[in-house]
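Exercise 7b. Backbone tokens:
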């Protein structure tokens, strides 16, 4: 069936999963790809997002990230119904269960805090994934590559796989003056000191792109995690990003810390962790985030 705005190749593939389609209602929430609510002839609903162009779109790694979060437990995620990564001839797409949206209630923040603490429990020898940084494949954060190399300790991973690539991209685009290179070089060279104390927590599974817009609240008030950029790392990464772009307030923090108290030095490490999403935003959206990124760099250096 032809649906306005949906590439016919995508509609044909999705119909193989859902059956005949009736309608597509565009929905917001995604700044990278178009998305909508599908209805089938049988009245069932599903969430679909797709690429506006042919070629690889990273939907496969996102689907596998959602499945990893579901397997780890803690905060619910939408069930993956189907995925196509895209080819030179067919756009990619990701099909998820439809979760009727609602408003955050009094317990939403507490459920999120307690559930995230459970998700963030340290990985051990009996777990499915190894307790070292990285992931089984490289991924994306929005439209930017997010490498997940193996063989680095956590400070080395944060320096070489997170901060340095985004800084290099921003510098090449002229977002920062060359005079700031010295400050960044000092931080990269002393990342062990900047992140001192992280070892108390160990390595856990991260959502990787956690801000309020990637927490979908169901009609019941239950929070669900969406749009992940999953990898293994230090739990304070998710907490720092959630706080940077507007979190869920005191009830969230109280529930999280009741379940999993934060290690000493977490406030000192926060600037180091917030620097990464700020650099990502510089590269995605331009100079409006430059001053905030430089402020985080200054704060990170002030910690040692």
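Sequence design result:
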């Amino acid at each position: 069936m032809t649906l306005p705005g949906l590439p016919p190749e995508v509609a044909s593939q999705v119909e193989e999963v859902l059956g005949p389609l009736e309608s597509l209602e565009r929905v917001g929430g995604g700044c990278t790809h178009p998305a909508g609510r599908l209805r089938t002839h049988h009245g069932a609903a599903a969430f679909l997002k797709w690429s506006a162009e042919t070629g690889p779109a990273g939907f496969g790694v996102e689907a596998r990230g959602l499945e990893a979060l579901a397997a780890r437990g803690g905060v619910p995620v939408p069930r993956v119904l189907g995925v196509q990564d895209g080819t030179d001839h067919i756009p990619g797409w990701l099909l998820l269960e439809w979760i009727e949206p609602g408003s955050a209630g009094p317990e939403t923040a507490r459920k999120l805090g307690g559930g995230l603490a459970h998700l963030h429990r340290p990985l051990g020898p009996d777990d499915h994934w190894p307790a070292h940084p990285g992931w089984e494949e490289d991924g994306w954060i929005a439209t930017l590559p997010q490498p997940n190399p193996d063989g680095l300790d956590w400070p080395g991973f944060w320096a070489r796989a997170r901060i340095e690539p985004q800084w290099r991209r921003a510098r090449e685009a002229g977002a920062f003056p060359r005079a700031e290179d010295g400050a960044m070089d000092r931080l990269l060279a002393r990342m062990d000191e900047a992140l001192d104390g992280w070892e108390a927590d160990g390595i856990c599974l991260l959502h990787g792109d956690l801000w309020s817009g990637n927490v979908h609240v169901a009609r019941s008030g239950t929070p669900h995690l969406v749009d992940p950029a999953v990898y293994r790392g230090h739990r304070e990464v998710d907490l720092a990003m959630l706080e940077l772009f507007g979190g869920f307030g005191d009830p969230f923090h109280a529930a999280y810390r009741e379940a999993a108290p934060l290690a000493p030095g977490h406030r000192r490490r926060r600037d180091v962790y917030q620097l990464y999403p700020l650099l990502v935003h510089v590269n995605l959206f331009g100079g409006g985030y430059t001053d905030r990124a430089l402020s985080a760099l200054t704060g990170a250096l002030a910690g040692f």
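Instructor comment: The longest helix spans residues 266-285. The first strand starts at residue 21 and ends at 26.
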